Amino acid sequence: MWDFETDPAYQAELDWAASFVREEIAPLRYVISNVLDIGDPIRQALIPPLQQSVREHNLWATHLGPELGGQGHGQLELALLNEVLGEEPIAPIVFGCQAPDTGNAEILAHYGTEQHKQTYLQPLLDGQIFSCYSMTEPHGGSDPTAFTTTAVLDGDEWVINGEKWFSSNARYASFLIVMCVTEPDSPAYQRQSMIIVPSDTPGIEIVRNVGIGDERPDEGTHAYIRYHDVRVPKENVLGRRGEGFIVAQTRLGGGRIHHAMRTVGMARQALEMMLERALSRRTQGELLSKKQLVQEMIAESWLDLQQFRLLVLQTAWKIDRYQDYKRVRGDISAVKAAMPGVLNRIASRALQVHGSLGLSNEMPFVDMLLNAYLVGLADGPTEVHKTTLARSLFRDVKPADGLFPSQHIVAQREAALARYADVLAAHGR
């Protein structure tokens, strides 16, 4: 049972990771054009040696079991590590736990054949290739019941046709895992299947690579894809036909916790910068740290951060304790729903304290704000998770028996007077 104190041996590894991220990984953002571009010689000269250091500290892909080259860490340990990695976007790649590859690896480990594991999973785990999760569609968003991309079995091959939107890392991926409608006449959540598609398969058209924020056109990493009669072997389906929605859940529960703890790391970084600025900048004859409104912004940010962090860690602990994502589904949705607001509020306050410098591209706050919107949409929009949380809360509540609520003061008073009538009468009341 976790009692708010991390095992000293693991804490030592976390301390090493924190120094490693800040001293060795953070500077790379200024010298590597795109960390996903394995063809970049500068990237290849710098990243693999750092990955080897991570392996030597037994922190490589720790979400995976020993049989897959990881440590098999539980969600609580993973959460604590991801809090450290959240300070630097490149860090997950150096530690072998970047999205969407982690989720795709879990799918392949659970549902892939031995051939799939040899061809796709092992190189993915070794950091030799990247993958893409191609699910969202331009007209239906992330709602699988609205998907229209189809895969039709023609002899020994699936023939895929349709469009996918925001397929992350497609331009650098060696393979894609595509959600397709294979059972159009089945119930809504039993119509889709997950299919492996090698990226060099004829018929894959990247219409454009979509960027976020001020990224230049066609230089983003989120692809708008059209599939034109794309043919792959029928053995490339992951799981049974029509189980695409179930397969998708394999990759989402833990992943949401990891995203949340990385958000904690990013928000903590914003708070640290806000504190430094308040103690460094003077206005109207005194430090910003002396201004009560600035003090309020810092206090509110600390409260936001600590409350959210404890919620995430408690949820991670529950996942480890119960080993049942369904049982903790409401908690996971709560984490997902709270995440964008926490980052948005803290990053906004930090930007404000930095003034025009905070608004400029010489500080990271605008990127943090964009990321707050991104985490509010990725893995299901915030609004969906709020309804999931509410439904989970309703499950353990019974409606009131009578006309008035069970905590109605009048009814409770009457019940109390009836229960203690003898005592009251004995004392003349």
Automatic annotation (TrEMBL):
Keywords: FAD, Flavoprotein, Oxidoreductase
Phylogenetic lineage: Bacteria, Bacillati, Actinomycetota, Actinomycetes, Mycobacteriales
Family: Belongs to the acyl-CoA dehydrogenase family.
Sequence ranges assigned to domain Acyl-CoA dehydrogenase/oxidase C-terminal in this UniProt record: 242-393
Cofactor(s) required for function per UniProt: FAD
SUPFAM superfamilies assigned to the protein according to its UniProt record, in alphabetical order: Acyl-CoA dehydrogenase C-terminal domain-like, Acyl-CoA dehydrogenase NM domain-like
Quaternary organization: Homodimer.
The name this protein goes by in its record: Acyl-CoA dehydrogenase family protein
Entry keyword Flavoprotein: yes
Source species: Nocardia jiangxiensis
